Amino acid sequence: MTAHTPPPPTMGCRNAPLLKERGQHEVFCGLTGIIWLHRKMQDAFFLVVGSRTCAHLLQSAAGVMIFAEPRFGTAILEESDLAGLADAQEELEREVDRLLARRSDIRQLFLVGSCPSEVIKLDLSRAAERLSAKYAPRVRVLNYSGSGIETTFTEGEDACLAAMVPALPASDERQLMMVGALPDVAEDQALDLLAQMGLTNVSVLPARNADTEVSVGPNTSFALTQAFLGGTHAALERRGARHIPAPFPFGEEGTTAWLRAVAQDFGIDQARVDAVTDAPRARARKAVAKAAETLSGKSLFFFPDSQMEIPLARFLTRECGMEALEVGAPYIHKALVAPDLDLLAEGPVISEGQDVELQLDRCRAAQPDLTVCGLGLANPLEAEGLCTKWAIELVFTPVHFYEQAGDLASLFARPLRRHDLLKLEAAE
């Protein structure tokens, strides 16, 4: 039995006019991407070259106690470094020497730029080249920027993966590369589905360990699992790999479309895909339906935050029955999100960038049932009586593929249920 999915809208949002805004924006720093990346890459260490503020941000975001041995840290830039009175390159190399002497488990070291290191023009790429030559082949040293200047918090992962691509070995093998840092449970489920479809030559970027071979070449097709990997997409295409355009694997419909796009690229019959996916699709629909009882008919407003807004809006409107009023994203990379825009019915305002005061005015005027935004906006909006959902939770939580579809829908249903309960309590 083949499951029914909603038909594409007669007019999607691919060519809808964009409301482009370039004003003050409210986003997390790109350094926060380290929190999920260091959990994914088991033998990597992320050394932020920054200030004490950077160190406090990471410690607070990760909840790591000061005496623990996490796989990230901060090389603190002191006043003498910022004033140019000390040789910051020499001091950085000394700190790396100490770190690697103490931590023999480190196989990949990322030097991560921050706002302070960028302001003083510290050349981390030169440091990475020197240190990589010094410690090769035991440790590979790479660098990327996680600075919060004009970036959103998911761009930290994009910059990290893009930095890894030039160092990947070349290969002419016909292979699939699945790109994006996923929780292990979601990644394992995806690999299992692909294997059942007959795809066995599959690699993942980032791999969990440095020893896991990930190669790239003209016979590599790659499928993105995260909507914010524009830089990584470009880096892989420069290496000759070919992108498989597809909706992102959120919910039953998105996951099925993603798997079918991969299958088509590799010449796998759709009947085989249906045979593999019929059971998990039914489970996903059942799980989503439970949360949809709360979500159906409710209106939705997305502030730009993670770049996941467009595929999430597609999932919530088509599978959960919500109405999108505005879908804001920090950047809209149509090579990545066009398949989701095709499925998103015409109607909502599609905005790119942010002028936060103007967007707040539109949100207040619209009075949506649910507003998806960053932490900095959530509390003030809640105080005004609006129901909010923290966008950052969508990056930390397993939400991809069939078995997580119900959990994804529940992330949006819970704040609505909580809001209704609080209103009832206030009325009593």
Automatic annotation (TrEMBL):
Oligomer and partners: Protochlorophyllide reductase is composed of three subunits; BchL, BchN and BchB. Forms a heterotetramer of two BchB and two BchN subunits.
Which GO biological process annotations does it have?
Answer: light-independent bacteriochlorophyll biosynthetic process; photosynthesis, dark reaction
Q: Which UniProt keywords apply?
A: 4Fe-4S, ATP-binding, Bacteriochlorophyll biosynthesis, Chlorophyll biosynthesis, Coiled coil, Iron, Iron-sulfur, Metal-binding, Nucleotide-binding, Oxidoreductase, Photosynthesis
Per the similarity annotation, which family is this? Belongs to the BchN/ChlN family.
Residue ranges annotated for the Nitrogenase/oxidoreductase component domain, each copy included: 29-403
* Protein name, per record: Light-independent protochlorophyllide reductase subunit N
Q: Which reaction does it catalyse?
A: chlorophyllide a + oxidized 2[4Fe-4S]-[ferredoxin] + 2 ADP + 2 phosphate = protochlorophyllide a + reduced 2[4Fe-4S]-[ferredoxin] + 2 ATP + 2 H2O
Q: What is its EC number?
A: 1.3.7.7
Give the record's pathway.
Porphyrin-containing compound metabolism; bacteriochlorophyll biosynthesis (light-independent)
Lineage, highest ranks first = Bacteria, Pseudomonadati, Pseudomonadota, Alphaproteobacteria, Rhodobacterales
